[in-house]
Design goal:
5-stranded mixed β-sheet, alpha/beta, 5 strands
């Protein structure tokens, strides 16, 4: 699927920016593992702390306090921040709880939110339930996001 995504991005001359939290840059690393990533991938921000989400992605402190860093509201603001600070055609944001700590009853380990936006169009954001083991969860979320982004580029709805 990664090769399909890269080919489609290059064919359509789309560009991409990322904001990763819980995946720690794993999506960016996956994208650049293929040649020609520079033809579409502009870069990414690993905004692990709330302070970085506020400073570099313009996530409001109020949203962070009211909804928490792991929320649909925050990934939507992360995507908006990317689009306001870059010339990217597409923006992706990821935030979640991968454990073993940091979980709550409302947001157990494996709770991850992903948002995808195309400039000037809708923002899709959803909750994704990842595996409980941390490294498996990161790989799962990276693959999920690649597939969801590919579907979005092709004009469809997320079915993954």
């Amino acid at each position: 699927m990664l090769k399909n995504l890269a080919s489609e991005m290059i064919l359509r001359k789309y560009t991409l920016a990322l904001a990763e939290s819980c995946t720690g840059g794993a999506l960016a690393a996956k994208l650049v593992s293929l040649p020609d990533a520079s033809k579409y991938f502009l870069g990414g921000i690993v905004a692990y702390s709330n302070a970085w989400k506020e400073r570099f992605l313009h996530v409001s402190r109020t949203t962070l306090e009211e909804s928490g860093a792991v929320s649909q509201e925050v990934v939507i603001e992360m995507v908006k921040g990317l689009l306001s600070e870059t010339e990217a055609d597409f923006a992706v944001a990821i935030s979640g709880v991968l454990g073993p700590g940091g979980a709550s009853l409302e947001k157990p380990v494996g709770t991850v939110y992903v948002a995808i936006a195309k400039r000037g169009e809708r923002i899709d954001a959803r909750l994704v339930e990842a595996p409980l083991e941390r490294l498996s969860a990161i790989e799962f979320i990276v693959q999920f996001t690649i597939e969801a982004l590919y579907e979005r580029i092709k004009g469809g709805e997320w079915t993954t």
